[in-house]
Amino acid sequence: MAFTLYSLIQAAILCVNAVAVLHEERFLSKIGWGADHSVGGFGDETGVKVQLMTLIRSVRTVMRVPLIAVNAVCIVLLLLFG
């Protein structure tokens, strides 16, 4: 497999897919990253863990429908051009 722009985009899509399928109750809460573990008030300095949890939750919320379309386009391109 050559190192092309398409392979970089495909790797990014795979990473976003991996974040999107993380289930909060089944996986994230077992390692201490569930929704109930994020405690913070307004104006508090948030740590890296809370920011990553917020990023995961945002990707799962916002990117769900666009990921379906992007994955479909990638599948069609792979079928057409190998």
Describe the structure.
The chain is mainly alpha-helical and 82 residues long. The model has no long low-confidence stretch (mean pLDDT 81). The radius of gyration is 16 Å and the shape is elongated. Helix content is 66%, strand content 0%. It has helices at residues 5-20, 24-28, 48-62, 64-81.
Question: Layout of SSEs?
Answer:
Elements: H1 5-20, H2 24-28, H3 48-62, H4 64-81
Give the oligomer, counting copies of the same chain as homo and different chains as hetero.
single chain
Measured by DSSP, the beta-strand proportion falls in under 5%
Number of helices: 4
End-to-end separation in angstroms reads 11 Å
Shape by Cα distribution: elongated
Keywords:
82 residues; mainly alpha; 4 helices; elongated
Structure summary:
The protein has 82 residues and is mainly alpha-helical. The protein has four helices and no strands. α1 runs antiparallel to α4.
